[in-house]
Every structure is written in C-alpha cells, then in structure tokens.
Amino acid sequence: LKMSWLRFYLPLHVLTAACVCHSIKAPATSSQQSFRTDLFNFYHSLMLADGKETTVHLMKDIPKRYYFVLKESRVLSPFTITVTPCDVPIEWSILVHKASAICFLPAGDHGTKEVSQSQKAPSMVSTIFNYKGNSVETYMGMSSHSALYMLEFLSTERDTHITVYLTTDTTSGHLYPELPMDPRIDVIGVGHTTVTLTWKHSPSVLQHRESIQYCLLVNEKHNYKSLCAAETAIRSSGMKLPPTLALSLSPYLLEPQQVMILSNSELSIINKLSSGEVRQICMGTKNTYTVPNLSPSTQYYFDVFVVNLLTNASAAYTGTFARTLEEPEPKVTELKDGKVIQVVLDGKKQKFYSLQYQARHKKVQFSFQLCRGQVRVHITKNGKTVALENISGLRYFSLKGKVLDTYLVQLRSPEDSNSSVKVQVSPHFHKPLFPLLPESLKIKSFSKLRTCNSVTIAWLGTQEESKYCVYKRRIEEDQVWRELKNADRCSGPESRHKSEKVLCKYFYDLNLQRAVTTETIKGLDAGTLYLFDVYLFGPSGIPVRYHSKVVKTRKKC
Q1: Same domain for 188 and 317?
Q2: Are residues 315 and 192 in the same domain?
Q3: What pLDDT score was predicted for residue 456?
Q4: Which residues are listed as membrane-spanning (predicted)?
Q5: Disulfide-capable partner of 178 in 134, 203, 425, 474 (CB 3.0 to 4.6 Å)?
Q6: Which strand (E) or helix (H) includes residue 203?
Q7: Residue-wise DSSP of 496-531
C-alpha cells in the first residue's frame, strides 16, 4: 500500500484540520502499516454534509464510506447521525480516528511526510457504533477533541438506498418531527368494514401546528418502519412516485393506478397494486381516525407518520395491525310464487340482501327490475352458482331443475350510494311480471319541431297492445343532473302529481319497424326546461318507466 495515494482522496483542508502535532520523521513498522490501511479507508470516501439529509445508493456487497471532521472545542460538542433504510436491512457503523495522534502532510511528488508524537504510532481508529437491521436508528455523540469520523454502509441482500442525516447544531430545531415518549398506535375500535385508531400527539405538532401533519398508511402485507420504505415498496411494484413526499401528492402527479380523494380536509391516495391496495391518508393534526371502506374478515397493517411539510422529513410511530370482523350472516327472506318484493340496499349499513325460494315446479323464472343505483345478482341452486351478473333495467333468469330445489338469491350493492331492486319468482312463464319491452327505452325529441310553447317527442312500442302515459314537469338547470341520477325507475304514475299528467294512449304494431309513436305537447312556457317521462303498462299492471328526457323550449320564435 503506497500512502502517496492519500492526497488524491482527502482534501488538503481536511488534512490541515486534522493535524495538530509536530513534524517528526519515523520509519514504517508493521503496526504503522496497519494504521495506514485504516487511514486509507477514511480518506477513500466522501464528505458527509452537515445539516442536510443525504441519499446514499448502495450496491450489493460493496461498502460505501462517508466521513466528517469535528474540530477541537473547549466544551463537549454534541452531534447526531440518523440513518433511514429505505428497503432491505443494512449494516452500518461509525469509526473514529483521534487526529491529534498522527497525521500526514504532502511532501512533493515523491510521497508524503509522516508526522507523529511516537515512533511506534499505534492505530487510534476505533469503532464506536454498529447496527444491522431496517429500522430508523439515531446515534447521539459528544466530542471535545479534533477527530475524524467515518460512516461505513453495506447491503448484503440487494441494491438499495438509504438516507443519512448529520447535524452538529442541535440547538436550531429538528429536521425530523419528534415522536412522543410512547409512540405506539392504539386500536380502539374494530367493525366489519372500519378500524378506529388513536395515537399520542407529537411534540412537534403542538409547537408547529401549521407545518406538521399526520399521515396514515394502510395495507394488507406488513408494517413499514419509515415513509421512505413505504414509497420504495410502491415504486418497486411499478408505481411512479414524485421525488418529493408521496403523501403530499398533487392531482397532476397521480398515475392511472392511483385514486385521490379529498373530503373533509382529508387527503386519501389509493395505490392500486398487483399485490393489493395501499391506502395513504393525511388528516392534518387529528390524532384519532376511523379507517373506512375496509373488507370484512381481513387483516390490515397501519402505520402513522408525522410529517414536516416544509422539509418533507418524517418520523414513524410504531406500527400496529387489526383484523376486521367477519361479515354477519345475512337475514334470509322467503320468496313466494308471484309475489313482488322491493329490496333497498343501503350502501353504507346494509350492502347485501338474501332471498330464498323452494321450487314447486321444475321450471322457475326470476324477474328483476333495477330501480336505482347498481345491483349485483348471485343465484345459487342447492349451493351451486347458476347466475351471476350486474343487472340494469329489466332482467329475466329462466332456470330448470327439480321440484324442491332450493334457490338462494344474493343481492349486493357494489357502491356506497343507495340501490334498490324489485324481485319476483314465478313458475308461470306465460304470465310475465313485466310487459313486453321495446328494443330501447329511450325518449327522443326533435329539435327542429321545438317551438316557444311546444315540443315533440317519440318513443318505441311493441307488437303487443299496451297503455302508455306521458308526464311532464318543469325543472331548473341545476336540478337536471340530480334528477336523472336519482330517478327511481320502479316508481309509477301514482308518485306523480295529477297536474303533471299529459295524456295516456294505447298503440302497437305487428311490424316492429313501424312500432313508434310521437306526441306534440303544447301549452308550455318559452325558454323553459321540462322533464318528460313515459310509463308503459302491461297485463300485470306493473309499469315500466322509460329513461327521462329533458327538453328546453325555444326562447324566441
């Protein structure tokens, strides 16, 4: 080992700062040769910035070294080093060389001068700290001597990255938010689809409320010991994250696999990953939170991070986990031949409903009319699935089996809003519950036939003579979307005011190409929006409502 290489790795000002002894020429002994190797490791490294978080990329099985120098002081000078692994466990250590014992100075182009207080110059390098794992670790030290410190990092599993923060100024505040004395997360409530958590306030929140907030991470795999580790896991699954704090994402930074929800001052980001869903929720400075929309009988892991919004630095509470309660067995309602029942599904409290029917004939027909929202129908016969689909409008299922077969109909709402559906089961195929339907239930209006006081609409009929009733109602522009979205397609004319009725008529045509009728509704106000509905009545008397149509009369004629 030639010590002349040293001057290429260690800046002159560091050597000067480290050397506080007198120049004495000394021969090279075996102990000094070992000492020189230690020094070479110091110098063959990078300067670690003071007061700044440094990202360090590690290659597998290749150590990486950083150094920093503390000058001599009359009083003990504190310093702290915080290392955050962002993926796999790593090994890291702190070594110190008290520079007052020996130093090297440049000696032209032929080598270096070795300066020592002792002819033997024993090695003064010692390891003061080492750690192996993936937790966030902070070392706090004190020094009054001029000393050279080296940090060595090693990853033995795979390529990874870490963050390192060194500060020698412990009086100007903390880069990382502080954790309370008890950093545990408490589970104070568990439901079928919710878990309620609470944690003690961070001292940083109490001091800097405007720039500190809590963020919660929810997933089904495991806890994360740092926000850095959570972001790495999301990235490794194919998700792109911005270089800044993931939990402060703006909408334009979202990927197609991400969904952001902002409500009640809470920011939720849902990452749709192949391995499951990772949910991120930032709730300001509240330290109690109920996580909604979880799946029943599922174990979830919860991590809380206190985040400094000014620096993007964060500190992790001790993660916890909880298993949601099993879904209760639904109450089963018996279906009777020919009887129509209407089922209402509350998207938040009751999202499913079960109906049971024991066949008295070999052939049975289930009829469904979707009234509002979305409903998924699952029919089993003696425990085996015979039908499974999301229904829209009217839907018939004609099934064959044996007498006394048991059918179970499970209705589920896939969304949070209310849904409702009418259900009937009957062995009488020749007496359908609903009338024969046309190819389309849309109402058409003719723009060229609009006037200031009339509009003309048309709709399709069938080959079966049926009764059609037309209703109209004035509507404001800001009501259109709500009316069309929340329309109850199962409600009949009995729910309408008598003044809204326009007319009723019978018609049919054996040629479906000509089975269409038109009506001109007069006596309307100029420049006014109207909502038109058509009801079709069949032999059973149960109406079917066409899709509502909104038309505006001309303002000037």
Answers
A1: yes
A2: yes
A3: 97
A4: none
A5: 203
A6: helix 203-207
A7: S-GGGEEEEEEE--SSGGG-EEEEEE-SPPTT-EEE
